[in-house]
């Protein structure tokens, strides 16, 4: 770690707030897209959409604070930010389209309870995550998200006629260049907020090019407080509940990778109890999401890259990020301001951040003995398959829908393959599992 990064571990409140805002911007667009897509699919009117987006952002703040604060039963206690995972979009649309909105929230509540109850058991899988598995999983998480970043760099919608418009490429590449230049020539705190500065510069240029409209800000209301069962009393269906339980298992695998990545970054060895507390916090967050008619919440991979780039590994900035999320959730007009940031600006920043997450996985793999064929095969097959499925998730489209829910996620496929192979090789003594 550079000296300036070490000195910044004890940051002032003002600097912590700025760093927290940087974390917020890194996750904001990825989270807002979930209520926007699901609300549009369910044909929500303007008032319903306003509630859904605002309540979602507010609950992101609640979920983040639940995970930050360690208690005897909950909280991973790492610099994590929580949001709604994109893998819930298709299952929730299916449930809402076939059974109705009320069944969405019944399924979310039950899946959150499921996560809470199996957290201790799931945490016992920790021994199946030796460095070769941990490094592979984190590498998959980082590099499998790069295509999403590149798609955003081109404007967000690859099927649109104006995809890869020169304006999008210009602001995206400028955003990326600013982040890189600050990390080359910047010093101290300025280097720590390189992502924020890059996104601000990119957004200003996008505004000058006429790419930004503030219509959504003008239409948003000033204040909106989340209400329990806003869309009605939850209804329950076994098919919907099972679907969301399968989804929750995929998010638990992904969260495990993020927890282990941050544990490695912060120099903290995570125990089974730590992991169980982290899962329970996500389970409670999901149940609250069902009660307030939003979504299940899990740990965002995006923010690992922010921690890596900023060099600030304390939780104080994340507390500010959680507080800002609560405020934005209560003030839809203020929250709408963050949505005007063009996808191409976010994409430029994401390419850097996701790449950093992937490199973090490679750093862990540097400590793996690759003279053993077993380790070579685990990394080659898990990383290759994980990224391959991410690019072509339709490879499993002939399988039952329940199987597709799990196998469409390249991170889950690659992670499961790494764990399975490490277990099989351990049976023959070719590798050793964690104690």
UniProtKB/TrEMBL annotation:
Q: GO molecular function of the protein, one example?
A: xanthine transmembrane transporter activity
* Keywords in alphabetical order: Cell membrane, Membrane, Transmembrane, Transmembrane helix, Transport
The record's principal subcellular location, in a coarse class, is: membrane
Is Transport found in the keyword set? yes
Q: How does this protein lie in the membrane?
A: Multi-pass membrane protein
**Which Pfam families does the entry mention?**
Xan_ur_permease
Localization, per the record, is: Cell membrane
Query: Does the keyword field hold Cell inner membrane?
Result: no
Q: Which GO terms describe its cellular component?
A: plasma membrane
For this chain, the family text in UniProt reads: Belongs to the nucleobase:cation symporter-2 (NCS2) (TC 2.A.40) family.
Spell out the protein name for this chain.
Xanthine/uracil permease
Q: What is the lineage of its organism?
A: Bacteria, Bacillati, Bacillota, Bacilli, Lactobacillales
